[in-house]
Amino acid sequence: MSVKIEASEGGMPHDKMLGIGVVGALVCLYIVYLNSLMSTDVFAFFGGLAAVIALWWGTDSIKTLCSYGLGTGVPSAGMISLGSGVIAFLFATKLAGISPLLVPLGCIIIAAIIGAILGFISDKVLNMNIPVMTRMIAELTIVGSLTMLGFTAMISGSFIFTDLIAGSVSFLGMVVTSYAASVIGGCILATIFMLGAIAIQHPFNACLGPNESWDRTQMCALECGFLSMLVVAVMSVAFLSLFAVVISFVISIILWGWSYSEYIKLSKRDAYAWLDSKPIREVGGE
Amino acid sequence: MEEILFGIGISALAGALATVAGAAEDTESDIGSQGDPNSQVQLAPQMGYVHRIYNKAVSGEPPAYGLWVALAAGVAWALMAIQFNAILALVIGSAVAVFVQGVYATTAYLGRTASLAKFEQPVYIDILKSVTSVTMAHAFVAIFATVTMCFLMIEALGHPFPLPLMGIVWGIALGAAGSATGNPFYGKERQYQKYPFGAGLPISASGDIVRYAEAGQRSSIDNGWFTSKGAGPASGICFGLIVFFELWRTILFEPFAAGWGAVIAGVVLIIVFMVIDRYVETWARKTYGPYTEEAAPEEEAAA
To answer: Where would I find the beta strands (DSSP E) of chain A?
Structure first.
């Protein structure tokens, strides 16, 4: 079970990616808080950037975990990441009652604790015996919670629990507060959950194979993240001003277009051949 | 009485939408080789069988459809929140979800195929150009029908869940129905057409999928054409029955025993279907298959 297969050679060391992921996501999330300080919502897209940075790092965590012969376990790793992350995320948004500045940092700490417990159970109690399991599940839980926090911040412009349960509906010209029109009450979280869960597992799942390369997989991670940002920007029309939505949308589409074309270039570089309307080229002969 | 009749009518309509969704979903996943048949498409080049079949390894169908339908529902919900017309919102939501599905499909094909360079499997970009649009079209039908069904349940039957939550629940159910019902037809029969029906898959035949068609080379669109006759409708009936019986039992039996009536009716339905399934399976094996307990070793030796 625990025979390690080297997924790809080269690339950035995992610890450095962890550092960039945590610091980058935290900085972006604190920039979103400027929305509350300056009573605007144009900084919402930084939440999406935080989620993308977290996904970029999480892709490498999944790769490290799944290099222990967990081929079909890649999508499951994405699911457990977001599934455990959502607990930490919801708990952390409640910390805003003490101070809103606690939310991003608290989210990481709570997620690390939950993830370590889950990782310990998978590794020791269920006896999967994978050396990096506890650490990687903890990392994936942090990534999952940061992704939820980031996309939620992008969609509503805030990560404070009281803002997430209060939506506004205009009824006969009057604006009424309504739980059903909020991020949590409208269950937009369900969509964010699936966006994050598929985006975190897809890069390694799509690129695995003997010729998997670090930069192509990571570019795919960025592409998946920016694609999710794009649709989160579309959904944010329900909560943000039109100006903020347009800013989010334009930034997302530029970044997505760039990452998608880069990904195609890297695939072209790595492919055995790049053929258009050519027949099957038999190898070895039958 | 009138309320019950209205409820049954909506159940039938939702069941019909689910049938269309199930059929489209399974055809879509077979065209893209998603779900468990994907493992053979992935394995074939490693065994020396270079092919021109799409390799849409997004994830299992249930999580993937969970995303597509939840996304369509989320976008539709957001647009309805800013007073868009419901039908327009559902169409735009499905279109956005299909765009995301198409992008995921292309990155999966490029990524998986480029990673097989060691086995001399080239990237055929004409496949990318011709097949992706076909899977997207089928996915649109599946997603739109499912989201509309969820919308009907909420608006007409008064289901308490918001649209995105219904989307994730029924999206996963849709993917599971298509994956469980339709995939064996593609993965076990179509990919291994040259082996006898029900022969199983001996290790020596792994990866030896059918790569040449009656004339020329097999494309994934041929697989869609083939599976749309048997596997697609079967998945459609499966998902349609799930949705219809789920709503039907709730509407008719919920007033009994403080809601437990619906639960008991559900358990009874499951038992009835288990008996039917077992009967159909043994009947099909006896009637069509060479695979019987005595003949099994011979079949494997012949293969």
So the answer is: 167-171, 174-178, 274-275
